[in-house]
Amino acid sequence: MTGLVERDHRVLWHPYASSVASPLFGVVDACGVTLTLEDGRRVTDGMSSWWAAIHGYRHPALDTALKAQVDRFAHVMFGGLTHAPAVELAELLVSIVDPSLTRVFFADSGSVAVEVALKLAVQATGRPRFLTVRGGYHGDTAGAMSVTDPDGMHGMFRGHVVEQVFLPRPRPLYDEALADGDLDDVAKALAQQDFAAVIIEPIVQGAGGMRWYSPAYLRGLVELVRAHGALVVFDEIATGFGRTGELWGMDHAGPGAAVPDILCLGKALTGGTMTMGAVLCSDEVAERVCADGGTFMHGPTFMANPLACAVAKASVQLLLDQDWRGTVARISASLESGLSPARDLPGVSDVRVLGAIGVVELEQPCDMAVLQPRLVDEGAWVRPFGRLVYTMPPYISTESDLAAVTGAIVRSLS
């Protein structure tokens, strides 16, 4: 019988790859933190399926929620109708964010959540342009690309997407103090032009470089933006649900010290089970959009899909019901000790850890055709990109699981 990879190469196209993806590995089973490949090899997942499967695979709480809902109904349109999974998930989400965020709009994915946030800001302010920083990543759809670093993976789309205003990356790193002048570019840009909003990933810049910056910068940024009458949009798609060691990336700035007007969620929202995003906003934003009988002009066909809502509620509740903070702290310590030997390897420029994120940054871009199979041979599923070899493991990972992933990274880079 023809193998999965050969059949795949005839008909499929994978993300961030040529039309014939290579290297490529067929998966026949995923359970816990283990992926079983078509050739029988078992590898430990260090990626949480692009940071989403925080509870691992086939978790009984998530599977039970899905099965219970599918026995009721899989989907109904959300225009003019509502249902318990959507209401209950929205109630849960607003209970775990700042009290000012009171309204929930469900989206199809993280990228679409960003699209929704941008459209909300434009409708609420009547202003078309956005301010952001370089090194950010907000998704692959057109609006999301417009606020993603134009010198990054979307540079080929210049002229197609709207040109936004970009400032330098935040200078102070996570453990550094804010220095005089660090926010001067922000103040100058806000004084020169009226923006709908500033959009930023709180504390951790994810796919744009896996870099974390000072909470003091985030606090100062929000203060400046509010003083100039623009809205604040936080993209917590990658940083939310405990990944950085706090429930939200913004929490590193202190309780209530940096709160957005609009908040984007995704990835871990459903525990990696189904695609879904969510956008939360304040009553003030909602009132501005809906003033004088106005309506928000966005309506996904599969908005608030009941299956996705049911499993998202189960995933969020599963996280809240455990000592997630202690779990992430344990993972963080294991990543630090396990990746530390990479600091002495030739070609490595930096090793850094924050929460359940571990990064080995190389001096030169890695050769995926060589490194990816080597990592699999070493028993781990890790998906490098550019100069970054990183891991964001599921929260259920044991010490031996984490040692398997970090050991595979170090040995492969050796």
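the 2nd protein, sequnce then structure:
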Amino acid sequence: MKSFRAFWSLDPEVTFINHGSYGACTKAVQQHQQRWRDEMEREPVLFMSRRDAMFDAARASLAPFLGADVDDIVMVPNATHGVNAVIRSLRWQQGDELLVTNHEYNACRNTLDYAAARWGAKVVVVDIPFPIADPQQVIDMMLAAVTERTVFCLIDHITSPTALVLPMEELVPALQERGVKVLVDGAHAPGQLDLDLANLDADYYTGNLHKWPCAPKGSAILVVPKRNQEDLHPVAISHGYNADTSERGRYQQEFDWPGTFDLSAWASIPFALEDMESKMEGGWQAIMKRNHNLAKKARDLVCEAWGQEPTAPDSMVGSMSTILVPRDIIARIDKRGSNLYAELREQWGVQAPVIPLPDPLGAAVRISAQLYNSLDDYHKLASAVLSMRD
């Protein structure tokens, strides 16, 4: 089997199965970004004056990758920024209800709570079960929570703590039919899932490019259909707010010039997409299929070793999976005053996030599958955890 590890500069002493947290750039992308930085520092004024062309090139490469209209795409530093831009642009009435699940990423949930308190709106949390047996449970529970006061929903495409792929294709239109505007937090989705955002037609969609597409840190997208662009503003109000819109729309002008930023991450997006696509025959479709299959095989391997059942059906697995840790092992680790994440990292050189869960579940390990991973990585994880029984 072809080894992809050499394309990355990851520590060879670390078994890295945590791509989902912050991603990792290939060496080629790091070098490409540095060339942009070198050019910027040679002539900063001229470099910044060319930002429109950089953003347009990034949008042109992203439109087919995301299945999105090029005019609906703007760049943001990360998905949390995208969530903030949307939620802090909206205005609610006293008593309006805002839906969110109990699996929502903490930073984005904080944004929703902040805005709700400001406007006197009510956050309604839908408790999606975990482990889960069927994606239809998500649809049924979300729609059952909609009332005549429900106006907005923030929902993960792929949940961060539990790695569940939620059924957006069914859920988004069903909520919209009930008068609910939907913001999809797709932080993990680009590069894991074959996206068709124009067809999905969510009111707002944000996603990271530094994770699965392996673009530099600080590169993410916000995709908003034209019907919702007029009243949307970036977190930082800057020059684009009163820019001339005769040749270029205000929506993109506002987001394209948020002040002085290192533009190299955004400028590197086209190269990053091409660099990853070149790694496998069949390009992105082959990469996503390979990572999805590896994630399922890894989940089954670890579940069998630990005597656990999968926490979700295959249809809810992308390139990550979350596996429950045997309770007796957690109890032993707790008794000696340690924690599972630290022991995995410090004693075994395994980098994997440990997710605390409410009783009686205890904790889970979230595994990621990227091109540089192989089944040997997950064998090591399984053995390391089992050794903690001793």
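Residues 283-306 form the longest helix (24 residues). The domain at 28-276 is CATH 3.40.640.10 (Aspartate Aminotransferase; domain 2).
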